[in-house]
């Protein structure tokens, strides 16, 4: 059994995030030692790492929770969840590319040296 600081170090999740995950029910509350402090087992650290990796990949907390509930033999369900997430990521990328093009155009307009700022005009028109 290890203390919360060591669990944070081993999992790559901050102490405050671990506490948040516990309050939100994403990970179970750990056992308490005789001194009343949280005591984490290896499986607790593995679960924290799993959630951290899900979050690193952009999965929502609900999606991470759903993935945790699936077992190794449930690859089709994992694939469906992952493909849904990938679709959302692709839509975000497309939206960001559109935003990038709009900002580049507005910035280019500013470079033309007009006495009125085309970017501010565009923002005010919106």
TrEMBL record:
GO molecular function: DNA binding; DNA-binding transcription factor activity
Annotated organism of origin: Roseovarius azorensis
Coiled coil: 89-116
One Pfam family recorded for the sequence: MerR_1
Domain HTH merR-type, first and last residues per copy: 1-70
Entry keyword annotation includes Zinc-finger: no
Record key words, sorted: Coiled coil, DNA-binding, Transcription, Transcription regulation
Name of the protein described by the UniProt record: MerR family transcriptional regulator, mercuric resistance operon regulatory protein
InterPro entries assigned to the protein according to its UniProt record, in alphabetical order: DNA-bd_dom_put_sf (IPR009061), MerR-type_HTH_dom (IPR000551), MerR_fam (IPR047057)
